[in-house]
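Issue 218. Parser rejects a valid record. Input:
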Amino acid sequence: MVVRSTIMDTNSFRPEHASELDEATRQLTAKRERLLGESYRLFYRRPVHLVKGLGQYLWDANGDKYLDVYNNVASIGHCHPAVIAAVNEQMQSLNTHTRYLHERILSYSEELLETMPSEINKAMYMCTGSEANDLAMRIAHAYSGGTGIIVSQEAYHGTSALTSGASPALGSGQPLSPNTGLLASPDHYRLAGQDVGVWLADRMQEKIDEMTTNGIQFAGFMADSIFSSDGVLPGNAGFLKPAIDVVHKNGGIFIADEVQPGFARTGEAFWGFARHGVIPDVVTSGKPMGNGIPVSGLFAKQEVLAAFSDQIPYFNTFGGNPVAMAAAQAVLNVIKEEGLQAHSAQVGQQLLNELKGLQEKYDCVGDVRGAGLFIGFELVSDKESKTPNKALALDLIEKLRERKVLTSVAGPHGNVLKLRPPLAFQAHDIDWLVGALDDALHMIL
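Output the parser choked on:
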């Protein structure tokens, strides 16, 4: 199989790995191949058959326990009892759409909007991040009158026709929209010594000017503020602001895709964009909102949303349904009651410090960077050249899997371990993760 997508194909099972599998796993992979569409991918050369989850842990069909260091779907932890209880209670009374009155969607919106800048005062709901980003792009078109959307060079924003056309991480098999402009990623590791904020703002203006030259009117910039698909590039707090100023100066809007950095993940703030001192025009979110229950949201400045909503009705059958809102409310309550933002900052810093010890120990660990419980662990050929070492990263992923630690890779070269555990991850889990990394690196090298 030709590797074409950094987020789908890099760390995936391939048919040539089948001979290495035990009989039960081989039968399951063969059944998947027979029944499911070929676009699907499984993680790992030896796929993991999971049957149970609790907090930051998962169990496979053999009863083996794993440490989950990748999952932000179950953002507050697998099978959190508060979410289970809220969903069960609401399912027993009513589940319908948003064309009937219901209190849950209103109370949740009111409470969530309080976590936003006051300028962002309108909410809309869908089921997936792709749907939220799709609507955000339509709003950008309506507000600006243009169609040009700028994203980072390895961005992933969804699977709809609009969003996949603005998701270069999906690879060469998925053509980009002719109205999509690719912005160079703010790779602080390789831009050491430069003012990355000024550098990125200059690249933004160049890309907008290029669009204008090609007859494309600029509509907006959509970004995940930690640039996770680009290799987890948090950078210094505030570096993004000059680029957003350029966006607004040129009549575009900033869409903050918070599916990955939002909901207390970065520790420094509830939302990833907030660490940069910017106010987005539109904020989108998805999977962390419902801890596994499909729900997503779009939050916008009233005057920006009005350009779309005053002209076009919007309806999403399951978006904002009472059960989804019950799950979302439970997640928000848990984040507040369990102090998960402060927890993410504290435990994330402890983990970062321990991982930096491995950076000092091994010449192949080029950089360790992160914000809260979102860390990039970059593998290189050597520290001087900073040459990405994809082969080592993929071998390391497999060795971690053998040590019952689950994670994956990111970045254009597939050489950055993306360490993003559920927020239930505790300080006592650090030894398991760092010890497994240390042992695996020692064995490979």
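Fixed in the parser; the record now loads. DSSP finds twelve helices and 15 strands in the chain.
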